[in-house]
């Protein structure tokens, strides 16, 4: 019944609500602004969760074995470690990193001129796991017996913070959207209160000629809901356009390279205008009932 009333035009009822003025502009501006922010909060939340998940999955299938030993023993321990890894179920590939690769890993911190050959660098072995993975505890026991200078890093300490960060960012996104919805409802309530107070005399006359409070409230609800829907649609369109024209940060951009929507997530911004209109509907209904009761 409420939706039918919103879609049915009533010229007489529409004249109860001022078609322009500061309340109309406030409603449209608030709805557009909040929808814009909601779409960006949604995009940031989804992007952060997606990037963290990709990083976590990449780390989940890779491990690093670090061998620290005297220079004359390093080659023998490396060979022994490779033999252990080749016979470990769940290890798909094990490859010792070259001096150039290890220097490239240290370059972001120490620069390109680091004399790797003159430093007592450990030997790093890159391990690629099968989808099933391997028993890290069992592998550590074997390594401790056969390669005493080996330290296995299965990236667990990296994965856990990423998973926790993704969960918190998603929660923060939903909290932000909830706060935006609450702020939208508050602004719509203020605008509806102002419009109702400004039309107190008109409401009194309408009551004298037999108009019910439900009829008067319906006029305000319809006008403010449609204004909010229009403003939110504009804000959503602007936010989607802004996301589409974001420059590509490339692989070096990390998190910034993934801001936006992918796949079916592009449907989610389209839900923002109807939800904003629903918030406006209930906020205006509550405001109209309260003010009309006070004017009795």
UniProtKB/TrEMBL annotation:
Subcellular location: Cell membrane
GO biological process: cell division
CC terms in the record's Gene Ontology section: cell division site; plasma membrane
First-listed, main subcellular location of the protein, grouped into a coarse class: membrane
Membrane topology per record: Multi-pass membrane protein
Residue span, ABC3 transporter permease C-terminal domain: 175-289
Entries under Pfam families matching the protein: FtsX (PF02687)
Entry keyword Transport: no
Assigned keywords, A-Z: Cell cycle, Cell division, Cell membrane, Membrane, Transmembrane, Transmembrane helix
Spans through the membrane: 26-46, 171-196, 202-221, 228-246, 266-284
PANTHER family: CELL DIVISION PROTEIN FTSX
Protein name (database record): Cell division transport system permease protein
Source organism per UniProt: Puniceibacterium sediminis
